[in-house]
Sequence to fold (340 residues):
Amino acid sequence: MLVGVCDFPGSYAFPPAGYGGIERWLWAVAVGARAAGADVHLLGPGWLTDLEHDWVRKPVRLEDLTRGSLAERELRDSGYDLLVVGHEYPSLPAWTRTWSELDCDVATFQHSPVFQHSPTAFDGRRLRLYCYSPEMIERYAEHQPIPELAVHLGLDEEEPPATAGTDLIWLGRIDEDKAPHIAARAAQILGRRIQIVGPVFDETYVRRHERLLTADHVKWVGELGGPAKTAAIAEASVFVYTYARPYVEAGAAVFGESLRAGTPMAALTWREGTCAHAALCDETGAVAVVDPEEDDETAARRLADAIEQAESLDHRRVQAVGMRRFDPVRHFQAMAARPC
Fold:
């Protein structure tokens, strides 16, 4: 089987060494496809050039090709069975025009809760859209989405054997949507230290919650990538997951990252059917579902209860389940199989 994994014209490198959503997912699919025995071509100029030592790298994007050109004929003659792409591509006319000449399947994962696809972007068979949670399946029902947990991998982020950690950890972009202040308050209620890992995206949000986010029990770590990021997750006792009431999580990488590292999760959600519900089970974490009409203090106390519940779980069992559930080979094989 020949698989082309198309880069995405974003701001992160391929493969990323810390953050990125589509970028980390595309790299995981490439790694999983090759481990499953497929031949893999990395398509597009975004991939790191030093990958050429180990990978077939073709710096061409389908949307840039001219009809009937030598480059288009060479791409067609390669004989791809499957292209794996960022979710915008099947709605881009220039991209789909070239794809239509290739006679291959397309698979993508929905990384945005708001992007609007063209009516004919997916058919559920040759053109397949995958969604993480029941919530996301419902949002994109007209495109016949297929349920699947996304696997994300970064550069040099292999997980060490699981150990019982010490501090709590929260990781992500620091802004209103991700609401780390609720995690900080939950830790304060428990008398626990929490590490906040990630880049600040919204200074106004930080100033609004400055008293809580700069309290003595909160340690600001900043943005981490590679082995340092993996170690920070693996050395924590519980990964605390939060988001704001109106925000819809399309498929956060942190679920797979935490479970694969052997760190159980305590998740705050405002409704049923979220990514947290799809990713976690009684062996890997605890989910606090809070009525969005409740205030932040009530949410923090419910989250604190979930933290205590998650901390009782066995880290080695969490890692074993996480490695199976977020296995890049399993993920690729699920996406490569055309539904009947």
In short: The longest strand covers residues 2-6. The two ends are 19 Å apart (CA to CA). Residues 255 and 281 are 11 Å apart (CA to CA).
